Amino acid sequence: MKTAAYSSPKTPWARFFLLLSLVAIIFSAYRVYQHATAFTVGLDYFSPEFQQYWMRLLYIQLPVLALAGAGIVGWLLVTRDRNLDKLEPAEELRRYFVLLSQILLFACIAYLTASPFTEADAAWHQVTVRDTDFTPTHIVLFYFAIPMFIMSGVAAFVYARTRLPQFADRVSLPFALLVAGPIMIMPNLGLNEWGHTFFYAEELFAAPIHWGFVLLGWSAFAAGGLLVQLLTRIVELTRLVSEDSAEPQKVLAAG
């Protein structure tokens, strides 16, 4: 019989699915709101209705996201493990499971950002006239979905840096590239909107002003290197935990 000290680490999948459900509800609510109001009160930035239904949403979500991101990162830094050299294999393995759940949530938010909302933005520009940088699709994509995407990646990165020896001692280049991709796409968003507003009206997907968005796609290739780093250490920890759990049984058998 295994002792409590060597019990198998618990997986965080219940919390993961709870957070994933919350993310799905929030993103679905935004999509329903877009469908209900984008073409009725979202076509003219200068109308009072646009200010009421869309700019008010922008002014609410930006500080909420900023406070949430700062709070999560701040909490991770304040509660960091300062004795990583004494970390038991079972506890380290549990933390890897937590990190994997965070990366999976990051990937799910990436899909929601890139598929329904980015495609909706592209379709919007194909059928409506661009007037300002603030449109119903931009307010959701640029100022909610992408910040959520960035926030989930940064939270996972900081968690690894403050909880796992493998990432605390040095910066993981694949992990850094994976998280930097969504962040580095933001300057290109500014360039894109500036260009479309002043000198480049064409909305073709292959237009040169869109080429910078390829950086986001290229950064995803770093996930392969990160996966190798994670699985290599998880295999080592699984072996150590198995050996530790078997040791008490050997002692009992010998006695």
Brief rundown of the structure:
This protein has about 260 residues and is mainly alpha-helical.
Task: Please provide a written account of the structure.
- The two termini are 14 Å apart.
- The longest helix is centred in the middle third of the chain and has 39 residues, at 89-127.
- The chain has eight helices and no strands.
- The protein is mainly alpha-helical and 255 residues long.
- Mean pLDDT is 86; it is low at 1-5.
- Helix 2 runs parallel beside helix 4 and helix 6 runs antiparallel to helix 8 (222-254).
- 77% of the residues lie in helices and 0% in strands.
- It has a single domain, classed as Particulate methane monooxygenase subunit c2. Chain: C (Glutathione S-transferase Yfyf (Class Pi), Chain A, domain 2, Up-down Bundle).
Task: Give the topology, please.
Layout: H1 13-41, H2 48-78, H3 89-127, H4 136-163, H5 165-168, H6 173-198, H7 214-219, H8 222-254
The biggest beta sheet reads: none
Give the overall average pLDDT.
86
CATH class: Mainly Alpha
Which range best describes the helical content: under 10%, 10-25%, 25-40%, 40-55%, 55-70% or over 70%?
Answer: over 70%
CATH superfamily: Particulate methane monooxygenase subunit c2. Chain: C
Distance between the termini: 14 Å
String of helices and strands: HHHHHHHH
**Number of E-type strands:** 0
Shape: elongated
- Please indicate the percent range of residues in DSSP E strands (runs of 2 or more): under 5%
CATH architecture: Up-down Bundle
**What is the rounded Rg?**
23 Å
Total of domains: 1
List low-pLDDT spans: 1-5
Main structural class: mainly alpha
How large is the count of helical segments? Answer: 8
CATH overall fold name? Glutathione S-transferase Yfyf (Class Pi), Chain A, domain 2
